[in-house]
Design the sequence.
């Protein structure tokens, strides 16, 4: 078998083995004790490229992608328009097949785009500094909580109950490692003490709504001497007030909405920004601007004494990568949308979601679960005649509509619906008609 | 080929500095629903300082930047411990099939059976390749795989009432993530010395090993590119004391189809899809760091894992799961590429990978040993670590050698790591390089050795041909400029 990715011929190998001074390749593995050498593995036989394409296409064909149907599912993963330039740029192998820019002289492409990314995240969130990127919104939130604990020396993390349940779960996982306690509290009954390192909130919250009095929360957090962490939807920041303007100390979020497809949950992108004073406690890669001896501007990885490869067990985090290619997608996306486009996307989401919510609320048996300001997601209570959220979603799927997220474990008969600029009025009207039919006019 | 008009200082102009107010690179549909009332201005942002570029400006800007990057597709990239192998192009095409990219992680499981089948098979194959029993594909990168593994050990020990095991042993040759991860897991880190052969010093290990030890984190082959022949004994020593053997799978490329972690006594191992399994490094992610464990640790895997139920596949939560490590199920887009790679290799291909990776590294060793000091004089596995100590005696440092390699058209090896080798040069050729490429690279390093003798200034001032010269990193750290800001007075 000749593999297209292995260039050495049998003659090459013979010549190389002779230069090495061994008779066979087996001799090179002599350090592996005989009892650990293996015989057979259970992998299926190798495929040629056309066979591979056929097999993977068949696997892909066993899925029903949401692009083919009106889709109203959100809950932390969002379908937004991705301009073609994004795929074109991140598809360039000069970006895709490079590694972490350890040699800045030949990595200026990657380094300069990271500097762009940091700048854009700062603009978006109205914060002072941002890192080069993290795994996803959930792990960025968890790292922010650990950072708050390290800064404050306190051992308890407070989360608002309306933070995405998956994100809460990741915070708990990370907190278990450091031996920190996690307290979940509702917005109207904060119980912060001097033991709390931070309060983390999500804005808009898991159910799509803005916190009614974020200023009061901010005052309460800072009165307790804790850090105020805000997890924000970056698309919402095209229209709504950024967390830096209401006292956030750390802002995190998931950057998937910024130019990345749904990809069945990953890779996504963690956004992480904070106030200047916390720079040296920030996890992750950071790029800085500098110059060479001739005065040419260049970029380097900097502040590395925070990081694992220098600081080892005293590092701020063990993270090495910065989700670079996904961060590049976000950078190109934000540059392509620009000042006008991002606001327009946010407004389209807002108007379409409100149109959908208003029409659904008028249907007999359906009601909005919450009052208040929402962005692109909202919770609908479905009528008992629909059989509950899971039955409702099943009935919608039969009509080739991907419904919302079943949140009945938090809101009785609740479905979390998401409407973005990708949903046309026609799709929304079809959803409304389908809901009316399923609800049975109850 | 021309790169377009000469720009004096490309780095000085960002997207924010290009374009003009009113330009945009995107086109969006008009609003087709009645507009809702916006909330009062106090809820809205005043303005957002994002660039205003036309699409042409945007594309030219990023294309110009891409040309300032070295990549696997531009040339030999022997970055030790990073396994910079070629990334097959067909994988990119397959990973972009709408049947994969347009799947919502929360859509009904009945509509994603193809994706789950792919993950299920990948779980099985990774277990088979490593000789272990159960797999989580959830960790987002190697470092998160490590954290997952360490937290599983912590949870397992807690269930056994052995919270007293508060220390994790880490060899002095280990990658920095190992001690950083152990610390994130709440463990105290104890460094174990290597012996004169580059193996774990079993006497040092014996004296560090007591009832307070949770695990040893061991990279195999280690970061010196050496396979520790005492591995069976090391596993025995740990298990006799009730401690676990954690494997850092960063260097699995050397062992594919040859030896398995499970057979050697490892309890838990993390893998790196972007190293061993050919998924693109992306300039620093996204990676993917699956965790593979012995059966007794399977109940502690993070949620969810893919399980088979009748004819279909489901997402399941292991009984004593440490919980979630990410928003959803890991980097599915990366897993598709790794799956495609394994389907292309088959069993025979796996072995060809490790054979050629090991031959290539030993060939580089053989060609350079006369000129460069070999601190551990034995055959290596997939990578070889030299020391620039001889050249340093002539006033040329390893950093200078690395920078001079750029002038010869190569990406430098990993330098100054592992920490136990003075002036380290860590070279990992991978199996995807030809003998001709290795010869050209070795010729360059031999030429640089002669330059170090005859015209050291040329080496010390390198690179001479890169887009920028050596950058002032000290000032970058002392007076950090970490973001763009509009210059005062430049407002149009």
Sequence:
């Amino acid at each position: 078998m000749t593999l297209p990715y292995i260039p050495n011929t049998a003659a090459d190998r013979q010549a190389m083995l002779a230069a090495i001074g061994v008779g066979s390749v087996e001799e090179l593995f002599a350090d592996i004790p005989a009892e650990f050498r293996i015989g057979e593995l259970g992998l299926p036989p190798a495929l040629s490229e056309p066979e591979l394409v056929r097999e993977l296409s068949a696997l892909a064909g066993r899925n029903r992608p949401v692009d083919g149907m009106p889709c109203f599912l959100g809950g932390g993963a969002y379908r937004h328009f991705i301009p073609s330039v994004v795929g074109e740029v991140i598809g360039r192998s000069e970006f895709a097949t490079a590694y972490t820019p350890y040699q800045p002289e030949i990595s200026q492409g990657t380094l300069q785009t990271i500097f762009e990314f940091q700048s854009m995240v700062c603009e978006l969130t109205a914060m002072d500094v941002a890192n080069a990127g993290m795994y996803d919104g959930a792990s960025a939130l968890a790292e922010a909580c650990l950072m708050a604990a390290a800064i404050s020396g306190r051992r308890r993390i407070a989360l608002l109950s309306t933070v995405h349940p998956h994100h809460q779960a990741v915070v708990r996982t990370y907190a278990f490692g450091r031996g920190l306690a996690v307290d979940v509290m509702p917005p109207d009954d904060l119980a912060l003490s001097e033991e709390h390192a931070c309060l983390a909130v999500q804005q808009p919250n898991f159910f799509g709504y803005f916190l009614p009095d974020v200023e009061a929360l901010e005052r309460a957090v800072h009165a307790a001497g804790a850090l105020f962490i805000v997890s924000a939807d970056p698309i919402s920041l095209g229209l709504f007030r950024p967390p830096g303007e209401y006292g956030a100390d750390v802002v995190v979020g998931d950057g998937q909405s910024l130019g990345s497809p749904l990809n069945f949950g990953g890779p996504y992108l963690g956004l992480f920004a904070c106030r200047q004073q916390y720079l040296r406690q920030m996890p992750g890669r950071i790029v800085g601007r500098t110059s060479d001896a001739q005065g040419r501007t260049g970029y380097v990885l900097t502040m590395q004494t925070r990081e694992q490869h220098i600081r080892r067990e005293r590092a701020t985090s063990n993270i090495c990568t910065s989700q670079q290619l996904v961060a590049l997608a976000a950078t190109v996306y934000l540059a392509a949308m620009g000042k006008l486009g991002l606001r327009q996307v946010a407004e389209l989401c807002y108007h379409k979601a409100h149109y959908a919510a208003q029409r659904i609320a008028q249907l007999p048996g359906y009601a909005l679960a919450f009052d208040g300001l929402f962005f692109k997601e909202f919770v609908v209570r479905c009528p008992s005649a629909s059989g509950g959220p899971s039955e409702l979603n099943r009935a919608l799927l039969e009509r080739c509509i991907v419904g919302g997220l079943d949140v009945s474990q938090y809101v009785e008969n609740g479905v979390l619906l998401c409407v973005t600029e990708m949903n046309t009025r026609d799709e929304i009207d079809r959803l409304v008609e389908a809901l009316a039919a399923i609800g049975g006019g109850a | 080929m021309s790169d377009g008009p000469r720009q004096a200082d490309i780095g000085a102009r960002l997207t924010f500095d290009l374009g003009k107010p009113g330009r945009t690179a995107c086109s969006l549909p008009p609003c087709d629903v009645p507009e809702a009332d916006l909330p009062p201005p106090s809820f809205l942002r005043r303005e957002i300082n994002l660039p205003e570029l036309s699409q042409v400006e945007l594309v030219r800007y990023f294309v110009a930047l891409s040309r300032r990057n070295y990549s696997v597709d531009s040339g030999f990239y022997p970055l030790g411990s990073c396994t910079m192998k070629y990334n097959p192009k067909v994988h990119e095409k397959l990973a972009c099939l709408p049947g994969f990219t347009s799947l919502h992680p929360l859509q009904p499981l009945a509509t994603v059976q193809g994706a789950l089948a792919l993950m299920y098979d990948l779980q099985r194959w990774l277990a088979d390749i490593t000789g272990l029993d159960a797999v989580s594909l959830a960790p987002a990168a190697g470092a998160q795989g490590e954290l997952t593994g360490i937290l599983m050990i912590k949870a397992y020990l807690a269930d056994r009432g052995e919270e007293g095991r508060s220390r994790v042993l880490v060899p002095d040759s280990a990658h920095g993530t190992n001690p950083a991860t152990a610390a994130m897991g709440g463990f105290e880190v104890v460094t174990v010395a290597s012996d004169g052969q580059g193996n774990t010093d079993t006497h040092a290990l014996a004296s560090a090993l007591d009832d307070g030890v949770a695990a040893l984190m061991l990279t195999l082959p280690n970061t010196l590119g050496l396979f520790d022949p005492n591995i069976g004994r090391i596993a025995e020593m740990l298990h006799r004391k009730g401690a676990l053997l954690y494997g850092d799978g960063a260097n699995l490329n050397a062992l594919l189809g040859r030896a398995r972690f499970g057979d050697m006594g490892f309890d838990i191992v993390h893998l790196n899809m972007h190293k061993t399994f050919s998924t693109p490094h992306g300039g620093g992610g996204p990676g993917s760091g699956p965790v593979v464990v012995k059966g007794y640790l399977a109940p502690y895997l993070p949620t969810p894992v893919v399980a088979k139920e009748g004819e279909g596949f489901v997402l399941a939560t292991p009984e004593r799961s440490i919980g979630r490590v990410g928003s959803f199920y890991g980097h599915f887009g990366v897993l598709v590429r790794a799956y495609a790679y394994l389907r292309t290799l088959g069993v025979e291909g796996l072995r060809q990978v490790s054979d050629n990776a090991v031959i290539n590294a030993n060939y580089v060793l053989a060609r350079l040993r006369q000129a460069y000091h070999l601190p551990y004089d034995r055959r290596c596995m997939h990578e070889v670590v030299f020391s620039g100590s001889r050249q340093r005696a002539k006033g040329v440092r390893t950093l200078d050698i690395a920078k001079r390699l750029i002038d010869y058209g190569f990406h430098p090896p990993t330098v100054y790591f592992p920490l136990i080798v003075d002036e380290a040069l860590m070279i990992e050729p991978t199996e995807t390089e030809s003998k001709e490429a290795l010869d050209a690279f070795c010729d360059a390093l031999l030429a640089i050795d002669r330059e170090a003798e005859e015209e050291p200034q040329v080496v010390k001032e390198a690179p001479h041909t890169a887009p920028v010269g050596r950058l002032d990193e000290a000032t970058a750290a002392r007076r950090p400029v970490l973001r763009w800001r509009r210059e005062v007075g430049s407002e149009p």
